[in-house]
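WARN retry 2 of 3 for item q-0093 after timeout on previous attempt; input resubmitted unchanged.
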Amino acid sequence: MRKRDDGAGSVYSTEHGRMCPGCGQPAGACECRERAAAEVPKGDGVVRVARSTKGRKGKAVTLVTGVPLAADELTALAKRLKRRCGAGGSVKDGVIEVQGDHRDALAAALESEGWVVKRSGG
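OK item q-0093 returned
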């Protein structure tokens, strides 16, 4: 069994394979990942739709924040929203990013799914 240099525990075991550095269990039976997936971010119940160009060389991206869903449900919602707009995008740190300025379309789509939506920013 190999040990990490910082003494935090094993990262690989010849018996179990790759080990999770967080909980020390084999990667297939990792408890941290299940706990993190089950946690839902808390907010005020309002989904905010904004437009941003920071760090993107002037290109617009629509950001959807404040959606209180688990990671896998958030990814599914992002997929539906991207398909509705016909654009690409991603989910980063609980924020859905859709390429282009689609604030009106996304706000309408989220309201039709029953969310309370506010446009934020300019």
